[in-house]
Amino acid sequence: xxxxxxxxxxxxxxxxxxxxxxxxxxxxxxxxxxxxxxxxxxxxxxxxxxxxxxxxxxxxxxxxxxxxxxxxxxxxxxxxxxxxxxxxxxxxxxxxxxxxxxxxxxxxxxxxxxxxxxxxxxxxxxxxxxxxxxxxxxxxxxxxxxxxxxxxxxxxxxxxxxxxxxxxxxxxxxxxxxxxxxxxxxxxxxxxxxxxxxxxxxxxxxxxxxxxxxxxxxxxxxxxxxxxxxxxxxxxxxxxxxxxxxxxxxxxxx
Length: 254
What we know:
The chain is α+β, with helices and mostly antiparallel strands. The protein has helices spanning 3-14, 19-31, 97-105, 123-129, 159-205, 216-228, 245-253; strands spanning 36-46, 64-73, 91-93, 109-112, 133-141, 144-153. The protein has 7 helices and 6 strands. A 6-stranded antiparallel beta sheet has the order 3-2-1-6-5-4. Strand 5 and strand 6 (144-153) form a beta hairpin.
């Protein structure tokens, strides 16, 4: 994993819009880098699985936690795909273990197996997969921790590389925040379209200006109303007394 590769990943991720695709693009591209066994992103979210969550005994606050939102990598032993997000570590309490600590403090964390493996939840897995380093970075946007980016690597990650990963995480957080904003705008647009369609149906279901009827003559008048009403032209309504001139004028006005 080098600076040029991280820069290319950041540029590619910046072109993606839906937040789901941003998340998946980040972890899949990182996991494809030499030496990276597993890449994951947890995002801040509400406490939603508390009753059955395996992390509950060490969870100090059941109102929110870190949700595993995207995962990528592959086992070199069994070939297992690590893209599942419903496993044992799908939630991390804020402040608990290494991922929770990053989420609580907003500080990066680099842990090497040579320094002792007590920080590992599954030492046997790490040994079999040749994991040498865990590198975690907070995803920060405008001073707020959006989540945590974590890498389990089969190579040693130095201080310089951790700095590169910090820059990448900042860019990834911006891409993620922008994608979420686009998601919200798209959701509002779809909601407005539904409301517009509903109102159109409501309007079309009522008589226009009080005009009721489906005879050829009435339908011709209604078509003429539809033609002239959007324009700024002056309209002269003619007809004998009692034929509905006032109704036509009202329909044009509406």
